[in-house]
């Protein structure tokens, strides 16, 4: 039998397979063909929550991200295309070119029981796409993010999801803090990803796992990622500023070209929480942001050390329990402000490693970010960074080999920089080292990661370029002129 959206008054009679309507047991099924692959929904008890409410179209959840594929069959009935906006382009269509925002939107509120794809956490809620990222692989101006937050509040969104951010050891932005306060004071609940470890940092043993901005601010619910074993996903950032965790590893959702894809990241955990907040407000629209935050913290499934712990916060998101929990006399959360009153550990200084980081940051900003092909590869890197970080954190040999390769390839990558006048040839030895590393990294990741990394490697055709000048190889690969881009951007798109 197809899934039925049961109205209030329906009573549960067992642990999840039957409900009673008018005295008659009715089996509850969901006809989205890939629903059984959505392990995260079972972990957060979304199925049980849907017996209480499936959300309301009166509750709008703003997705501040790379945009949303507006024509996706599992999203097009849920998207507000009247108020969507592209802030970098100053246009009123927030279509997605990268896939990240589309993935986030599907987790929040993909259409459910339409015999397509997947189910969303808040199936009846509305999605407001707000694009703040430039072309694929680019960052987002802090002013655009702040303006999008205020815009969402002015358009009466009740929830904002921010699956983005920048490292906690970067300068705190009061502009962003002020926007958060503006939305909060209008009754908007703001949910944000805690951040992911950077694979390059991991390779050199200097990963900073501190909760990132804007999740780090007060008045923002900071969400880390859990895995199917109910422990912190290895890439997930954590410290005393973390509120709770939600499933964020191997999460299936909507993607570009009317497709679906599994991804890892706190970016996938945050919209789980945003969707549950949508359910909570659909049931009781009078809940304040402070009450929502307190309910989420007190209704979790406890993980790890009893009560709060830095790795999983207060525990694992529990959708059904959140709908059944009430609180009273909750004071407002303190305003978001800079600096955030928490110690942020700094990476240990090492001159040799610092020099390598300078090379690779310059490669990102002055070479990859300046071409369409480079932007494509950066977008894939950002998308798969949590998976890569997880592989390096759990495979010592691959972490060591990755660090060694980055050291060995420094001269070749330096030669690509615009300031370089060097002529460096691609050696057979370096090619063989890279080829073996790509093969073994692909074998250690899931199918999505393996497909992406293998496709990129094959597209480069470096096997036929051994002995050629590396700058000539790169220039021949991407003849397109540099695209336009913003000059101020967040250094990390959290995936």
From TrEMBL:
Residues 58-315 form the Peptidase S8/S53 domain. It comes from Candidatus Chloroploca mongolica. PANTHER family: CEREVISIN-RELATED, PEPTIDASE S8. The keyword rRNA-binding does not apply. Its main location: secreted. Keywords: Hydrolase, Protease, Secreted, Serine protease. The active site is at 65 (charge relay system), 100 (charge relay system), 267 (charge relay system). It comes from the Bacteria. Gene3D superfamilies: Peptidase S8/S53 domain. The keyword Secreted applies. This is Peptidase S8. It is found in: Secreted. Belongs to the peptidase S8 family. It holds the Pfam family Peptidase_S8. Signal peptide: none annotated.
């Amino acid at each position: 039998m197809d899934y039925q959206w049961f109205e209030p008054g329906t009573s549960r009679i067992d642990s999840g397979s039957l409900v009673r309507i008018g005295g008659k047991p009715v089996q509850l099924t969901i006809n989205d063909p890939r629903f059984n692959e959505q392990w995260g929904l079972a972990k957060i008890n979304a199925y049980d929550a849907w017996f209480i409410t499936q959300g309301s179209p009166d509750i709008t959840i703003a997705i501040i991200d790379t945009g949303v594929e507006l024509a996706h069959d599992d999203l097009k009935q849920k998207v507000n295309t009247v108020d969507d906006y592209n802030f970098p382009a100053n246009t009123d269509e927030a279509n997605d070119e990268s896939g990240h925002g589309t993935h986030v939107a599907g987790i929040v509120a993909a259409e459910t029981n339409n015999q397509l794809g997947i189910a969303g956490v808040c199936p009846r809620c509305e999605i407001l796409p707000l694009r703040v990222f430039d072309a694929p692989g680019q960052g987002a101006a802090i002013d655009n993010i702040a303006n999008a937050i205020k815009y969402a509040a002015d358009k009466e969104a009740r929830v904002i999801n921010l699956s983005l951010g920048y490292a906690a050891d970067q300068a705190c932005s009061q502009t962003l803090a002020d926007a958060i306060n503006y939305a909060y004071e209008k009754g908007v609940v703001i949910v944000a990803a805690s951040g992911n470890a950077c694979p390059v940092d991991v390779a050199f043993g200097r990963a900073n796992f501190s909760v990132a901005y804007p999740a780090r601010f007060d008045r923002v619910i900071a969400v880390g990622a859990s895995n199917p074993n109910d422990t912190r996903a290895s890439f997930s950032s954590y410290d005393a500023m973390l509120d709770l965790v939600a499933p964020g590893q191997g999460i299936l959702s909507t993607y570009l070209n009317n497709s679906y894809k599994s991804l890892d990241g706190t970016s996938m955990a945050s919209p789980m929480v945003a969707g549950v907040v949508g359910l909570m407000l659909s049931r009781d629209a009078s809940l304040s942001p402070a009450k929502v935050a307190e309910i989420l913290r007190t209704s979790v499934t406890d993980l790890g050390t009893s009560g709060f712990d830095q790795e999983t916060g207060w525990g694992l998101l529990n959708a059904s329990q959140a709908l059944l929990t009430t609180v009273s006399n909750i004071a407002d959360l303190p305003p978001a402000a800079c600096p955030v009153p928490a110690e942020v550990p700094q990476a240990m200084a090492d001159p040799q490693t610092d020099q390598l980081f300078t090379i690779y940051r310059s490669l990102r900003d002055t070479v990859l970010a300046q071409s369409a092909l480079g932007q494509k590869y950066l977008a894939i890197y950002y998308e798969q960074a949590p998976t890569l970080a997880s592989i390096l954190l759990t495979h010592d040999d691959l972490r060591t080999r990755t660090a060694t390769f980055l050291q060995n390839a420094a001269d070749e990558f330096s030669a690509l920089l615009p300031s370089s006048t060097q002529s460096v040839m691609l050696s057979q030895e370096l090619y063989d080292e890279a080829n073996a590393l790509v093969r073994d990294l692909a074998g250690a990741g899931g199918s999505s990661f393996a497909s992406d990394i293998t496709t990129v490697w094959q597209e480069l055709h470096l096997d036929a370029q051994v002995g050629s000048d590396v700058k000539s190889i790169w220039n021949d690969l991407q003849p397109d002129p540099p695209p336009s881009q913003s000059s101020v951007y967040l250094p990390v798109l959290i995936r």
